[in-house]
Amino acid sequence: MSHTDPQLTDDVREKRPTFMKGVLFMVVMIIIAVVLVIGASTMRNAEGPRVASTVPEPISVVVSPVALSGNFSLSETYSGLATARRTSQLGFSGGGRIDDIRVDVGDRVKKGATLARLDTRSLRAQLASADASVDEALAGHALALSTVDRQRSLLEKGHVAQQSVDQAVAQADSSMARVQAAKARTNAVRVQIDLAKITAPFAGVIVARNADEGAIAAPGVPVLELVETGQLEARIGLPSSAAAKLVPGDAYELSSDVGPIGATLESVTGVIDPNRRTVMATFAVALPGELSSGSVVRVSIGRDVQEDGFWVPVKALTTASRGLWLVYVAAPEGDGFVAEHRSVELVHSDGGRAFVRGVVQAGDRLIVDGLQRIAPGMPVAPREKVAAQHDISE
Length: 394
Description:
The chain has 394 residues and is of the alpha+beta class. It has helices at residues 6-47, 121-157, 162-195, 240-243, 386-393, and strands at residues 59-65, 69-84, 87-91, 96-101, 108-109, 114-118, 197-199, 204-209, 216-217, 222-228, 232-238, 251-256, 259-272, 279-285, 295-313, 318-319, 325-333, 336-350, 353-358, 365-367, 379-384. The strands form 3 sheets. A 6-stranded antiparallel barrel has the order 2-11-14-13-12-15. α2 (121-157) packs antiparallel against α3.
């Protein structure tokens, strides 16, 4: 027969009521939470959604009335190069040793100035020999003339026949031919001596020096390069439609890195370059000293485009889909205005303004500033400003 410990039995009896109390507490808390949620939901549905009871203040925006136009003028710019009218590669016609070069790169020379020389000692010796040949031929000719005079005197006295006189005259003519030949050889040597130096064919600046003293110059090989500085030409390729508007002899203003340059149109070829598809126009620069050869110059030519639309500041445009743009107008609504967007198509852009076309009416108040602060349907307070209109029309 077993006996149960009385203390152990009391502990078990105490744990069972404690567990039941915990479960009952959890059930009560869950019921309270459900009741609170249902009550809050019921009160929210009874009150309805909370909305703002005040209308937002209109945003002040700068507007300008839309001015529709059936055409617009644009200025198209074409570029070219300003080059020297004449550029020469200078060399010796005959070969020889270079004795002296008197200029260097960057030197400015006058027309006719001697720039370089060859060693001409051999040529001068040939000239002396040729001069002696001339003297010899002249002496022979003088003797032949004297012989002709004597033969004619003897013919008058009947001592010689006419044939003797004719032979003397023929010898005199032959001696004269020898004199002419000797003089021609002398002149040829003098020409060679003259060609043994390089002279400036026009005033300009030396831009290249390809040899020094002591070098052997080959015939025709450039030793110096001379660029004319007194006259510059600007050659610009233009579309045939633009070139047709130019008038030779008229004055035009070209733009360059040094500022505006006056020029006179000299000629228009009228022939389209097959590679560039342009017509070459040549301008004579009025003040060539202000511009360096090889500088880029530009000419602007106006053109009228027949297109319906209106001008807007570029800052009044926002991007849209499919290549379109958006503008905002202040549209009347009730006693005020709201912002509405309109789709437009960009036709031409010119600096800070653009010519567009779209569903905008003449006189609509175009919002030209502060687009980042507005959205479609937002109340706005338009205020017109003279400067804003100038941004569009100028």
